[in-house]
Amino acid sequence: MDNFISDLPFIKLPTEKQKILIVDDDTSILDLLDHFLQRKGFDCKCAENGKKALELLEASPFTIVITDLIMPQIDGMELLKIVKESWPDTDVIVMTGYTKNFTYTDVIRAGASDFVQKPFTLDEIEAKLQRLIKERQLRHTLKRLSVRDGLTDLFNRRFFDHKLKEEVTRALRQKYPLYLLLLDIDKFKEVNDMQGHQEGDKVLVTLADTLKSSTRDHVDLLFRFGGDEFAVLIPYASEDQAVAIAERIRSNFLNKVSSDVTISMGLAKIDPSLKDPEKTKKKLFLDADEALYSAKKDGGNKLVIKGSHTTKD
Fold it and tell me: Which of 75, 153, 220, 228 is catalytic?
C-alpha cells in the first residue's frame, strides 16, 4: 500500500519535521529522551507534568506526545484524554513501569497510538516512533486522496460541499465578504470529440494550473467538480478584487492553452441578510450558477456577475 501511494504522480507524502513533546516527572528520563531524539533530528520539548504539557500544547501543537502515566497533578491517562479531544491529530505514546495499574489494552482503548514499558531501550523508542511516523504519512495521504481530484489535484466536489458550508458559516459569523466563482470551459466537448480525451485532459490540467497561479495562496480555495466544471471560493475580497481574480484567471488561461477553447464564469456574493448558513449556502451557489448560465448563453468567454449589470467580455 505504501509503495502504491508513493508511486502516484500527484501525491507528495508529508515531510514536515516531527515535533515531539516528552512528559515525565523523572528528569533523568526527560534528559535521556530529549538528548537522544534531538540527535536523531527531532524537534523536542520537555514537560515535567501534565499541566506543563498542556501549556506547551496550547502554545504550539505537537505531532507526537510521549508521556509517562504516573505523574502528579494531571496523570498520563487524563493527559491522553485531553490531547485526543483537543488535538485529535496528535499521536500519543504512553510509557509506564506500573503494568499492574494499566494494561496495553487500557491505554490503546483510551486513544494512545502505542505503549512502552519501563525500563525501555532507546532502540525500542526509535522503532516505535518510525512506525508511528509512517502511519501518520499514510493517514494524511489517504485523507488527501479522499478530498482531491485525481487529475488536477484540486479539491473535489465532495469536499466543496463540505467547505462551502464551513466558509459561509464563518463569513456570516465574522461578517466578511465571500464570493463564489464558477467556471466552465467553452467548446470542451469538441476538444474531446475531435482531438481525444488525452488532449482534453491537458486542457483541464492547464486550467487547474492557471487557477493555482492566478489566485491567492492559502486564501482562495480551488475545486474541480468533475468534467470541465471548476469553482473558486474567494473570501476577504471586495467585488473589484474578486473580479480582478476572475479576469486574471481568464486572461492567463487563454495565454496558456493550446486548444481553441475559452472559459465562461459566473460570480456571486454571499447574502448576509439570510443569516441561516444552509439557506445562504444554497443561494450563493444558485446565484453563481445562474450567472455562469448567462455567460454561456451569451456566447461564452466572459464573466457575468450576479446582481450586477456588469458583464466582462
Answer: 228
